[in-house]
Amino acid sequence: MTDIEDLIAPLVTFRRDIHAHPELGFKEHRTAGRIAEALREAGIEVTEGIGGTGLVGVLRRGDNPRTVGLRADMDALPIEERTNLPWTSTKPGCFHGCGHDGHVAMLLGAAQHLAADPDFTGTVNFIFQPAEEGLGGARHMIADGLFERFPCDRVYALHNWPGIPAGTIATRPGAIMGAADKFAIRIMGKGGHAAIPQDTPDAVLAAASLVQQLNTIIARNIPASAAAVLSVTEIHGGHAHNVIPAEVTVGGTVRTFDPAVQDRIEERIEQVIKGISTSFEVECALDYDRYYPATINDADAAMDALSVAAQVAKAKLAPEPAPTSEDFSYMLQARPGAYIWLGQGRGDGSPPLHNPHYDFNDDVMATGIRLHVALAHHWLGA
Prior knowledge:
Layout: H1 4-20, H2 29-41, E1 45-50, E2 54-61, E3 67-73, H3 100-115, E4 122-129, H4 137-143, H5 146-149, E5 154-165, E6 169-171, E7 174-177, E8 179-188, E9 192-193, H6 203-214, H7 217-221, E10 228-237, E11 243-244, E12 247-256, H8 259-280, E13 283-292, E14 295-297, H9 299-312, E15 315-317, H10 328-334, E16 337-345, H11 365-380
Parallel strand pairs: 3-4, 3-5, 5-16, 6-15
Antiparallel strand pairs: 1-2, 2-4, 6-16, 7-14, 8-12, 8-13, 9-11, 10-12
Helix pairs in contact: 1-3, 1-11, 3-11, 6-8, 9-11
């Protein structure tokens, strides 16, 4: 059987090549092609073009009917890299600032190791997913028949986490990542001269009041025991110092873990907008998009993952969920499983995810591979 340590050097090279050639969601053609080639070289059956650029490698052995899915995301972010590393992105404005290159390498390493495992029995589906960063690649794969074509009794995903010490593994039953909603509110007056404001409904003033009122919703309408975040992140309007603009747009995000809280926040946004319309004699239009649901781990799958993790590294129960979002949530709505954090913090103030100075910590690659392999063995009873 192939020793995991023997796989690390070529996988690091593979990871850094993907890092140097990042691809955004649904454009991961080179990345998917390289993964498919490596899987086939390991003797694994590959199906490409699932949900766009997604692919699945299937490894079957013996007569064990159990199945498990292991998922890695492939896409990069539209951010300019500032690491100045030798493997820095060659594409301006695009880089692997969330470690998906490392996720791909770890899952590929697990596939290579299991393919050479004479004691392995059952079916493992290695799921390489496109477009996690806001485009819902998981949803597209599921709509394309992912779990009908590649049945999974359980499904797991591993994500690096700079805020946890390198090599430590953490997860929790129940909510682990937040639901992600985004909103855009158009405030429409009629426009006019800034010197004659009495003749023009002021969309800028309405926007200023709106921002203040939106920031009271969590504090005054949501119980203190419920975790929720509402952040206004965009205001657009105006082009000249002496013109009251006809339109201003206010945008932002909402993060929650409870659908009832999510409903209440959207309801209050709508009520606030109606009040703004009346108070400032403007029209308002709300575009509210619940683009990712909360990531909810199956309790048994999460506790199994912690038990397995303790066999390969230091494992801990995550004390609370993160308000960031993840489209693995769609897979967990379809199949029981768990989302798991792999610490990669170096203890030196490691840059966070989505930071232009971020890079995946290759020192944790072996731990990630061992966890994938151990999860497969545990569930399949191999």
